[in-house]
Amino acid sequence: MPDLLASLTPGARVLVTGAGITGRAVLGALQPLGVAATLCDDNAAALQSYAAEGVAVVEPAAAVASISDYALVVTSPGFPPTAPVLAAAAAAGVPIWGDVELAWRLDAAGRFGPPRRWLVVTGTNGKTTTTSMLHAMLEADGRRSILCGNIGDPVLAVLDRPAELLAVELSSFQLHWAPSVRPEAGVVLNVAEDHLDWHGSMAAYAADKARALDGRVAVVGLDDPLAAGLLPAAAAPVRVGFRLGEPATGELGVTAGKLVDRAFDDGVELADV
Question: Most buried residue, 42, 75, 249, 268, by most Cβ within 10 Å?
Fold first, then answer.
């Protein structure tokens, strides 16, 4: 198994892009590792605020000029691949991780105890509601679950809390910068045209959403043609679809107002809709 934290050896220079909530969470996660973290943002006032706290900071132009000096860039999800600092890092062969990628690697490496099981939800619409419902269902079943990601706290900020499962909402931006994430189960609810200025094309946007399907179980919304089209190529060994109507074998659906499982426990009624 490759070293998940090979770029984070003590003393390694790490550039953190983004001075918001995510950037603060990244800096907090890096501090115990003994790396030399430097914060970059085009908001000069934000950088000054961090500098007053003792954080090393650098302006974007200077970061671009010295990008080869860094072993790793950890970016906040709002930064697109075309951002000058990230484009320079890619051209120089410097690895780029998102905050979710960093969280996954730290968790999988056992830095916070036994790795959690990640349940990832994405989609153009409905992902916040669905992730909140998922978390509530897990808690109702007596599971130790934490709601995080694009809703609630960043994943990095919750890894030191006791939990068995993480109910993680992820945006397409977060998934783009998290190529190693392999959730216990991941769902793509739907895919509609959105954020194409960031991703560059509809195909690239859908491909980033599809990263949620690279774990053990992949689930997609069959009533949405674009989401359904992602299932055949999903890397997950278990692939399941759900629909609002009668489910076929291997699907989840609704019959006579009840949720019906014909994927994991054929014909079992789960609950009233």
Answer: 75
